[in-house]
Amino acid sequence: MTDNNKVQYLALLRGVMPTGPNRIPKMSDLVQMLEQSGLDNVSSYIQSGNVICETSLPAEELAQHMHQVILESIGANLSIIVKEKSDLERAILGNPFSEELDSSRIHLVFTNNYISTEQLAELQVMNFMDEIFAVGTACLYMYLPRDAKKKKLNNNFLEKKLGIVATTRKLSVIKELSNRMDE
Predict the structure, then answer these.
(1) In the CATH scheme, what architecture does the domain 7-83 have?
(2) Half-sphere exposure (CA, 13 Å, Cβ side) for 33?
(3) How far is CA 172 from the centre of its chain?
(4) What is the pTM of this model?
(5) Which of 138, 155, 161, 174 is the most buried (most CB within 10 A)?
(6) What is the spatial distance between Cα 56 and Cα 66, in angstroms, rounded to a whole number?
(7) How far is Cα 30 from Cα 77, in angstroms, rounded to an integer?
(8) How crowded is residue 22: how many other Cβ atoms within 10 Å of its Cβ?
(9) What's the mean pLDDT when you consider all of the chain?
(10) What is the SS3 assignment for 1?
(11) Is the CA virtual torsion 4, 29, 75, 18 positive or negative?
(12) What tens digit of pLDDT does each residue of 123-158 get?
């Protein structure tokens, strides 16, 4: 639980890879680095760059702080998208897809950037064949069936089309992260 002047955040690290320049050797090392940098109650979930922490820093400053710590400590140049538990809850509740769809194929796309309604409207009329794109109040949504013939809809496509920095997580991961917050 956070004290009164601290906020609990989820930091979504964009572009974490198992090898190469954006490799995070071990999430436990990252947790230790971030704790040593002044963040409190730091924890991680799976190797793909999900970090929960507490701080009195505003979200934008936290993203910059974490970016700098990671860059200076291990050389990974990662974008960091910071959200509060209420953002995750809104994203989960706002899931526009029917329960008949395979929930393991639902992906949530988070960004810190503003996206214009014109850009979103342009995407919403595009034909993605079997894939489905939807806009929510807390995030964007993608349904990506395993058997989709042409996989066009993905994080990189959305970043280029919308001119944003974004990161994508499965619905099940966001539910688990939300449950882990304020534990």
Answers:
(1) 2-Layer Sandwich (3.30)
(2) 20
(3) 13
(4) 0.92
(5) 174
(6) 14
(7) 14
(8) 19
(9) 93
(10) coil
(11) negative
(12) 999 999 999 999 999 999 999 998 766 788 999 999
pLDDT at 151: 80
Type of residue at 110: F
Residues of the chain with CATH 3.30.70.1280: 7-83
Concatenating the DSSP letter of every residue in 15-84 gives: T-BSSSTTB-S-HHHHHHHHHHTT-EEEEE-STTTEEEEEESS-HHHHHHHHHHHHHHHH----EEEEE-
Structural domain 96-180, CATH architecture: 2-Layer Sandwich (3.30)
Instruction: Describe the chain by its helix, strand, coil percentages, rounded to 5.
Output: 35, 25, 40
Residue 21: C-alpha distances to residues 15, 32, 47, 63 (Å): 10, 20, 15, 19
Amino acid identity, position 18: P
The residues of the chain that CATH labels 3.30.70.1260 are: 96-180
The CA angle 173-175-180, to the nearest 5 degrees, is: 95
